[in-house]
Design brief:
ten-stranded mixed beta sheet; about 450 residues; alpha/beta; single chain; four-stranded antiparallel beta sheet
């Protein structure tokens, strides 16, 4: 967080604040105070800083789930809405605290941008399953050395408000996990992680429950044993369910209200099972289910995509959302389809990683995000993170990634920037595009 003398007064906030969920509240900004991230060419970092009794709150640019379930002063700003939590998780409508919005000066977005607030650390690419919806090859090791993790913690954790320990592989395979969890918790950094649930023993569940974990996502695409085990080769449905029960029990025993969710890849084989998946989550004490569409990589069958069954997906989405609400849970899935048309992507401007996030591999290489494996910006085994983050390559990326000539060409057509639910490019790898275009043409011809 910057010094207070670099801030200028912006706005006093007055109740009522609308309660959203958990520790989260919403404040609607006056007309004309839109987020700069909605303006093409501007920095994705909101210039607004929320103060509680005159003191800037630490949890800037947080995800909504972190605000709801961790609280502790986390907040974000998008468009006209400010989502926030009190520092002590009290109700800001009745806690007698004074909330003020401050605005950073222009030089906030110049040369150096201090440290990222979100750090994504891949501890290993090793996994105990070989899923049809994931990479084509089975991956093993290496694991991040503890000396490197300690360096990352020392340099970055004092500045981080959100940490992700996931994406590369199965976190519970890591022999150093107890030490890693202790280190993260020592710095009081709330973190997100994901697991396939196969290794959730009572002991490991307890270790997670006693850490600063704020959200764990269990990858479960189907409530049906045969379907789940077909998608996630090597999985055992009963073992995963038992692991989830261990985790829910550990949370109850420890008394920490971290969030547990299921996450599913929505595809032809699973779309009609979504309501049953929500019911399963509810029966186990899991708060909700999130989902994303299958992205059909070159090695996958294009027929598995819901792009070809859009009406069916839309119907199941509405049914599943209503069911989740009736069970006092939630279901977050992709927006409804609108049509097969629009092969041209709209400018969504969704990417914010170069502004306040970073991605670190097990070997210490620093990347802009998880979809840029060939864009190495530095290596923490050889450099300090500050020198990488404020170095020439990162500055050039931040200056160009939202333009038509980004320093990393992949940014120009990345889904995080050009995400259009009507376009086939959002669902299929480029290798499939010729076949997909031909099939779309055939569908149009048949309906004329």
């Amino acid at each position: 967080m910057r010094d207070v003398d670099k801030l200028t007064f912006y706005l006093e906030m007055t109740p009522p604040f609308r309660h959203v969920r958990g520790h989260g509240f919403e404040y609607m900004l006056p007309e004309g105070m839109e987020d700069v991230s909605n303006i093409p060419g501007q920095s994705m970092r909101s210039p607004l800083i929320l103060c509680e009794n005159g003191i800037p709150l630490p949890g800037r640019h947080a995800q909504n789930i972190c605000i709801w379930y961790s609280g502790g002063g986390h907040y974000n700003h998008w468009g006209q809405a400010l989502y926030f939590s009190a520092s002590d998780n009290s109700d800001p409508n009745t806690n007698s605290k004074h909330y003020t919005l401050m605005r950073t000066q222009k030089d906030e977005f110049e040369e150096n941008i201090s440290f990222p607030q979100r750090v994504h650390i891949v501890l290993s690419h090793s996994c105990n399953l070989w899923c049809r919806i994931c990479r084509e090859k089975y991956f093993t090791g290496p694991f991040m050395e503890m000396s490197l993790f300690d360096k990352i913690a020392e340099e970055m954790f004092p500045h981080v408000t959100e940490l992700r320990l996931d994406s590369g592989g199965e976190i519970l395979l890591n022999r150093n996990l107890p030490t890693i969890l202790h280190k993260v918790t020592e710095y009081a950094v709330p973190f997100f992680t994901s697991s396939n649930g196969m290794l959730l023993t009572p002991e490991k569940s307890r270790q997670l429950a006693e850490s600063s974990l704020h959200h764990i996502q269990i990858s479960l695409d189907s409530p049906i044993k045969e379907t789940l085990e077909w998608i996630r080769r090597g999985a055992n449905f009963e073992r995963i369910i038992q692991g989830v029960k261990h985790l829910v029990q550990a949370r109850r025993d420890v008394g920490r209200p971290f969030l547990i969710t299921f996450h599913a890849a929505v595809m032809r084989e699973t779309v009609r099972q979504l309501p049953a998946l929500v019911r399963l989550a509810h029966s186990l004490g899991v708060e909700g289910v999130t989902a994303c569409h299958l992205y059909t990589h070159a090695c996958m069958d294009i027929n598995s995509s819901c792009f070809w069954n859009q009406t069916e997906y839309n119907d199941m989405l509405a049914e599943t959302i209503n069911l989740a609400k009736s069970l006092d849970g939630f279901f977050y899935g992709p927006q409804p389809f609108s049509s097969h048309d629009a092969a041209t992507d709209a400018e969504a401007g969704l990417c914010d990683y170069p502004e306040y996030g970073t991605y670190i591999n097990p070997d210490g290489t620093v990347l802009p995000c998880c979809v840029a494996p060939r864009k190495t910006l530095g290596n923490m085994n050889e450099q300090s993170f500050a020198s990488i983050w404020n170095g020439g390559a990162y500055r050039q990326l931040r200056a160009t990634y939202r333009t038509e000539a980004p320093s990393f060409p992949h940014c120009k057509n990345c889904l995080a920037r050009k995400d259009n639910s009507r376009s086939y490019t959002s669902y299929f790898a480029p290798e499939h595009w010729p076949a997909v275009r031909q099939r779309i043409a055939t569908i149009k011809e048949a309906t004329q």
